[in-house]
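Check this.
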Amino acid sequence: HTDYNGGFVFPGAIDKAMVAEIKPNGTDKIRAYSVDLNDYAEFGLNEEDKPAASWACYIFGVAREIQKRGGVVKGFDTAFGGDVPLGAGLSSSAALESTFAFALNHIYNDDKIEKFELARIGQSTEHNYCGVKCGIMDQFASVHGKKGNLMRLDCLSSEFAYFPFDPEKYGYRLVLLDSVVKHELVGSPYNERRLSCERVAEVIKAKHPEVESLRDASFEMLEEVKAELKPEDYSRAKYVIGEVVRVLDVCAALEAGDYETVGKKMYETHFGLSKDYEVSCE
């Protein structure tokens, strides 16, 4: 057997990790035990074998997505756990998907699947087996995370770049606060927010054919169609378009060591998430 610290790529680079112990069992079944949930599931590797337990669907989905891409997965026994808090918005599901994608790529596929494809496998697992039409950011961060850096990802071209992140050098700290609100993407407003953005993009595209998604739109384009939009769709699109600009501003500020601007933009992001995108809490 081999231990995998695959949820996040570099052991010791961050404080939170997902770890799995895996042993091929010579059968066509996966026997999985969640240490944190004290729960066990056993399931096959065919489409009709999807398990009932939601946590087991992440492992099943990763195995199926590897197979659908022509990769090999055979039966194995596994126990896994970690200290990435569940339902805290810290991407525990992406960490779990990435852990098993890394491990199954290594055990059965000689590490032939590229890292970015491993992230896509996690994303497809969410889409096809967990009911969440998520983007690729969380899985990408798990696969490509690098200590002392933030990443800018272009989800369309798959291009990404690292930017230095060392706030303490400039007298600042990054603080995470526990809101004590449990977060679950399945059945949450997540899919509805995504639909809002897609609806606005379609309305703008009717006047500006070059606009494929909100990333291509400007505030001027949004104002042009405001009267045709539901108020909540307008607000959500306003947040997304503004966030695209903020990301670029923060990248420039990080390279300049300008953490005043980084902090200001972070506050703008949180305000927009709360008031315009409406995915915050009291």
